[in-house]
Amino acid sequence: MPTSIDEVKGFLDEYDLRYMVDESAGVILIGFGCDPDETTYRDNDGDAHVKVVIEVMEEGGFLRVAAPFAWKLDACIHRAAVLGVLPALQGRYKMLRFDHDPQDGELQPNVELALEDASLTSDQFHRAVQAVLRGIQRFDPVIRRAMQTGEVALEILDERTRRSSSARRLAALEEEAGGSEELARVISGEGPAVDDDEAKAIFERIFGIGGEETEPRAGACDSRDGEPGGVDRGDDDGEDGEARKAG
Q1: pLDDT, mean over the chain
Q2: Are both 168 and 91 inside the same structural domain?
Q3: Between 122-149 and 155-177, two packed helices, what is the crossing angle to 10 degrees?
Q4: Is 120 a domain residue?
Q5: What's the number of domains the chain is made of?
Q6: What is the pLDDT of residue 137?
Q7: Is the same domain home to 115 and 181?
Q8: Partners of residue 52 on adjacent β-strands
Q9: CA proximity to 241, closest of 144, 135, 122
Q10: What CA–CA distance (Å, rounded) separates 59 from 35?
């Protein structure tokens, strides 16, 4: 059956997310406050905050999740460079697309789902919201560089991925050792002895030796009662980042 605005509200209520709704227009507005230390993204007021609009259209047969004016290009002298890099970004991230309005300079990341008469699941909905939030955080450094300098610097993404991977592995190693102090003791040779089989098992879990490395569960954006925490639906929409609660 077609999706209703009440159904979408129910999905948001699952995680105590705060939002504003226009029932007649079938539109929901929700804000996600991000950790400024975890993302370079800033809105047009200079805040680490993402405004997301959720629209139920075509009598419930179409769902759109978008971040209006995530970036403004009206005064950008390097607009061509920004628009030129967008296809490459879309190719690196499932679901996400970018729309540009040449009249007012709006650059809007969004996800659209043609539901027709199919039911929308909670997983589908939260995946669409997370795709927008993760895409904004992941690609902001590249878009911002293009806006400011006209340079297309896709290598930024690779460098951030390498740093993120190293940080995750170090955190996992600390956890296996029982904390940073215990890890230091192990490295210095003061820690408890570990036999070869146990060491192999630890390194398999941390570094993926002998099997695939587990996808990360990282995050930056929040939205439940303004407190840290969040919703994780997996990382298959992109390479890192995680949408959480809103405020």
Answers
A1: 77
A2: no
A3: 130
A4: yes
A5: 2
A6: 94
A7: no
A8: 30
A9: 135
A10: 36
